[in-house]
Amino acid sequence: MTRAGASGGRLGALVVLAVLVATPACASDEARQWLARMHEALASRTYQGEFLHLANGRIEKLRIYHRVKDGRTAERLVNLAHPGREVIRQDAELQCYLPDEHKVLVETEPPRGTLLGTLPHFDPALEANYRLELGEHSTVIGRPVRLLAINPRDDYRFGYRLWIDEESGIPMRTDLCDADGRVLEQVLFTALKVGGPIPDAALRPEIDASGFAWVRQGGGSPRPAPEEALAWRLMQLPPGFRLSLSTEQRLPGSDRPSMHLVLTDGLASVSVFIEEPPAPPRQASEGQGRVGAAFAYTRVVAGHQVTAVGEVPPLTVETIASGVVPATPRRLVPGSPAAVAGAPQR
C-alpha cells in the first residue's frame, strides 16, 4: 500500500498479485531474473511519472520522482487528489506532509524499498511458499511488458501479478490478489519517463510547512531478533514466517513505549504491536479490522493490547496474534487493570 494513499485512524497509524497456466521448470530461473532485474531498476535508476493507486474501491492519482545521484537516493511522492499531501525520502529519513492536519510525520529509520508501495523482492526462501511463473508479453501505455506471477502455495499469503517494462525493468502495473485472483490493490503507471536529470527543486515539498508540528516516530533501537531474547513469545506462526526484527518505540497517540515485531516469509510481512491498553475513556479494542489491502487482528492478553497487521489474509494475522503470550507468566491480582482487561489469571 502506498504511504500517500494510506487511510487515517488508529489502524492506519499501525500500518503508513495470480492465476496462470504452469510454465516449464526452466522458466523459474528466467522468472527469478526478471524479479531481480525489477528490483535493480527500482533501486538504481532515475525515473519519474504518474500512476493510479486503486484499493478498497478508491482511486488516487499520484506523481513520483525517484533520483539516484552520486550513490544517494531521493524520492518524492505527491498525492494529486489531495494538494499538499507529499512524502519525501532523503537517504535514511522520510517526511510525510499532512497539510490538513498541519503536521509533518518524520521517520528516521523508514522501511527499505520504493515509495511506489509494497513490491516483492527475491529471497532465498521465497519459492518454499510461492511459485514464480512467467506469463505472456503485452503492453502498458504503449510500452512492451512481460507478465510475472507470484502465486502462494497456501492460504496464509496473497499473490502478485507484475507487468514489468521490458526496456527499463520498472513494474508498469502491480496487482495484489487474493486466492481467487481478485485484485485487492493495484498500482498502474499512466505516464513514465526513465532517465534524464531530476532537479533538486522537484524533490522539495511545494507546501510551506511553517508552523506545522513535526512529529518524529519510529526509530526505536533494534533488539536482538532471536525470540528467546524477547519478553513475549510467538507460539504459533504460519508456515514460512519468521521473526526478522524487534524494536521498542512510541506509537502515535501514546506516551508509553510499545514493542514492535516484524515477521516475514521472504515476501509478505506482518507487524505485531504490543502495547499497554489505552486509559479510559478509550477502551482497548478486539477483533478484526482492515485498511486498504491490509488486514489486522487485535486481542488483549496479559494486560496488553496485541495487534497483528499486514497485507496478508485475515487468517494469517489472527493466527499470529492469537499465539502471542508473555515469556514469563505473571500472577495477576483479581480486579487489577490487567485482570479486568481480560488477561488470563494464573
Helix content: 10-25%
CATH domain fold name of the largest domain: outer membrane lipoprotein receptor (LolB), chain A
Q: What proportion strand?
A: 35-45%
Main sheet: strand order: 7-8-9-10-11-1-2-3-4-5-6-12
- Superfamily at the CATH H level of the largest domain? Lipoprotein localisation LolA/LolB/LppX
Q: What structural class results from the helix and strand content?
A: mainly beta
Mean pLDDT: 81
- CATH level-two architecture of the largest domain: Clam
> What Rg do the Cα atoms give?
21 Å
Could you please describe the fold and organization of this structure?
This protein is mainly beta. The protein folds into 2 domains: 197 residues, Lipoprotein localisation LolA/LolB/LppX (outer membrane lipoprotein receptor (LolB), chain A, Clam), CATH 2.50.20.10; 121 residues, MucB/RseB, C-terminal domain (Phosphorylase Kinase, domain 1, 2-Layer Sandwich), CATH 3.30.200. Helix content is 11%, strand content 43%. The protein contains 4 helices and 21 strands. The strands form 3 sheets. It has a 12-stranded mixed beta sheet, with helices on one face. Strands 13-15-16-17-20-19-18 form a 7-stranded antiparallel beta sheet. A two-stranded antiparallel sheet has the order 14-21. The protein is globular and about 55 Å long. The two termini are 41 Å apart.
